[in-house]
Amino acid sequence: MDAAVVARETFAASVFESLRADSVDGPGVTRTSYMAGEQRAHDAVAELASGLGLAVSVDAAGNLAARFAGRRPELPAWITGSHLDSVHVGGNFDGAAGVVAGLTAIAAMIDAGLRPQRDIVLMAFRAEESSTWFVGRHGGHLGSRAALGSLWEGELDSAIHVATGRPLRAMMTEAGFDPGRIETGPSILNPADYAGYIELHIEQGPILENRAIPVGIVTGIRGAYRVRNGRVLGAYSHSGAVPHEYRQDAVFAMADLVMALDGEWARRRAAGEDLVVTVGKFATEAERHSLTKVPGQVDFAIDIRSQGRDTLDGMETFLRDKARMIEAQRGVALTLEPFDRSSPSPMAPLLVAALQEGAEGLGIPYLTMASGGGHDAQDFADAGIPAAMIFVRNDKGSHNPNEAMEIADFMQATRVLANVLWAMAGEA
Amino acid sequence: MDAAVVARETFAASVFESLRADSVDGPGVTRTSYMAGEQRAHDAVAELASGLGLAVSVDAAGNLAARFAGRRPELPAWITGSHLDSVHVGGNFDGAAGVVAGLTAIAAMIDAGLRPQRDIVLMAFRAEESSTWFVGRHGGHLGSRAALGSLWEGELDSAIHVATGRPLRAMMTEAGFDPGRIETGPSILNPADYAGYIELHIEQGPILENRAIPVGIVTGIRGAYRVRNGRVLGAYSHSGAVPHEYRQDAVFAMADLVMALDGEWARRRAAGEDLVVTVGKFATEAERHSLTKVPGQVDFAIDIRSQGRDTLDGMETFLRDKARMIEAQRGVALTLEPFDRSSPSPMAPLLVAALQEGAEGLGIPYLTMASGGGHDAQDFADAGIPAAMIFVRNDKGSHNPNEAMEIADFMQATRVLANVLWAMAGEA
Q1: Do A205 and B238 touch (CB under 8 A)?
Q2: Contact B371/A241, CB-based, under 8 Å?
Q3: Complex ipTM, two decimals?
Q4: CA closest to B248 among chain A residues
């Protein structure tokens, strides 16, 4: 079958090109969740899947499912796929690569005259880029979470679309879907019906590129402990006339906290812990700050991610202790609330091992690595469905028009995907 | 004479009240440089000075001079005064206190039937709050510097008024003054004609308030070494997916620099050096920063002030060395240019001693201290005219409507001023 995957390279490239042509927006593409750009991509994939003879359906949240029927439909099925929305003027590969890979793998099985024991379902999810397209209170990945029954109570109404100002519920209704079914449902995807989920995705960081390795096999999706709207409150005063002992300097206080995090991060890296720490926002007040004022306020955001829950909990404790110490030492008030905690989502170890074996069997170089970004796969893992991910090397990061996935790398990753899907669903 | 000063308290309080009434703006006062608010204050002081029998004149820059003629007009005269403009919705005392004090001191001498040997000239300067009212390229304190012949070449045209968008030259012309005279002049105030300058001003910091001392005697005005428009350039990347070794994090880099300054400041404080360090601005980009992006840019401002030129030079060297080190360690580019240097202006030691003796003789508690803010006095010192300053305790800082100078403190400081003016000009 591997030869049949390789032979589908031109097909895969042409699908990417057609998706791009349908959603081109300046230097990149825009496939807005629950709007026309995303819908055109869903229509195109549905048509291609139908052309391959797959049974195409759309669920109550608008997610697309294309079922390659196996010989034993009573057995739990396998899912592969990803999302089809993009960020605003994003790249063509973030999301779409996983859908095209699934389609290519299934097409290759058909080309090779193979029919699996178990159903293999290609899925294309809606609204994975929810942090781009929705504001308000929501937990992200709205399409896959709707299908998995993981939406929060009220989330259909508290997630507000940035382009229309309307809630998710209205966006779904207007696109022809059925939010009421999601709300009252049993969940659309019942874990008992599925043996596992494998998602291919471009890497969003530079690790594979820097290490010259085409494929990544993901051990887990990092959890994130976050301060979204942190604030240091000190007191404004005269930069020349107020001596050190009377200052309540918000910038020195926050810089102290940042350097404390820097030090703790270094200690934990040295101890081999998986960890990234980002202070994405550190801002004095544009309306008030000045060369000649001791700054009285800093707004900040902190994003701490790790595959290890102990590491995340340890960092939270460190952050809180250090914040209290700085408050006492520097005469400021330091707000870390609301403090968001999303847990790490470990990938299923047996699936990780199967992917490693698959890549080794095919002679494809790979790196075992964490996923720093969130993906639909984590929602499957969180719902109790064994999940795994394959990354494709990508030079220029994601969420920008410069994504630079090479089709040759994509094909190597797709060969691993097809290999393991067949190993899991084909003969068992 | 001291009893005559004390007896003028009601007069002084009424002058403050009338100045306030003429310029009230919400909770504070606005006396815009070279516009109506400042002009009304000048008119009021001119009228009061004329009423005392002083010879009132207005110079080519619009500064007011009210001369109390001495017996020996051929001798170098003494100047006392300050400015009459305020910041936007500022307090009533910053600047005005020095003019009211001079007027009160001279009135008391007249009340006491005293006539000095030397002329005593009360001056009210224009546009001391130039950093509030003028943008563009300028060196501040435009009124006193115009009188002292210290304007830069082109400054009449490069200082742009914020309320009108017009250059200083046009503001002067429209107010009826003569910028051409300033440009071609000999300087309006010739150092050979003046024996010294003594300025009373509210303290702009909290030191006197915190130490419960009514009067400050200033040893020098701190110089300031400044980075007005600093920038750290790193690279934006994904907060979850990019590991430490591939980051070029502008916030960690800048926090590192801030904490280095914090440490160096502590070392120099411990060594007894006069120093304040302020990072008044530390701002990621409002349009691009995000919880989930490694920050690629920080804009900042640094203000380092000291009475010691060696301290300022040492801090500049430290800052530059540390910036180069951080660039190498953290993969960022750190811009410190343009780097402004204004030198410290030491007050005349003999005048400082005279003020200390005066306060001691009157039994008035005082603190010997630095001035962190800039004042017209520094332009006199820089022009080679012996200068000194008396501070008045002020609870709530300056440049805001909450300035809280007590009239009792003002009177104690004015007694010191009158005492020393008489000692210097009265009998010698």
Answers
A1: yes
A2: yes
A3: 0.88
A4: A278
pLDDT per residue, tens digit, chain A (428 aa), is 999 999 999 999 999 999 999 999 999 999 999 999 999 999 999 999 999 999 999 999 999 999 999 999 999 999 999 999 999 999 999 999 999 999 999 999 999 999 999 999 999 999 999 989 999 999 999 999 999 999 999 999 999 999 999 999 999 999 999 999 999 989 999 999 999 999 999 999 999 999 999 999 999 999 999 999 999 999 999 999 999 999 999 999 999 999 999 999 999 999 999 999 999 999 999 999 999 999 999 999 999 999 999 999 999 999 999 999 999 999 999 999 999 999 999 999 999 999 999 999 999 999 999 999 999 999 999 999 999 999 999 988 888 898 999 999 999 999 999 999 999 999 86
To the question of whether residue A83 is assigned a binding role by annotation, the answer is yes
> Max Cα separation, chain B?
83
A90 within 8 A of A32, measured Cβ to Cβ? no
- Judged by a CB distance cut-off of 8 A, whether residue B251 touches chain A is yes
DSSP state of B244: G
**Cβ atoms of B313 and A298 closer than 8 Å:** no
> Which residues, numbered 38 to 97 in chain A, qualify as contacts with chain B under a Cβ-Cβ cut-off of 8 Å?
none
Fold for the domain defined by B223-342? Alpha-Beta Plaits (3.30.70)
Question: Where exactly does CATH 3.40.630.10 map onto chain A?
Answer: 2-222+344-426
Chain A partners within 8 Å of B290 (Cβ): 280-281, 301
Which residues in chain A have Cβ-Cβ distances shorter than 8 Å to B241? Answer: 203-205, 207, 371-373, 397
Cα–Cα distance between A382 and A345 in angstroms, integer? 7
Cα A271 from Cα A165, distance rounded (Å): 46
Does 3.40.50.720 match the CATH number of domain B2-222+344-426? no
B201 marked ligand binding residue: yes
Q: Does B337 touch chain A (CB under 8 A)?
A: no
Could you give phi then psi for residue B133, rounded to 5 degrees? -100, -15
Q: What's the sign of the alpha-carbon dihedral A309, A315, A321, A327? A: negative
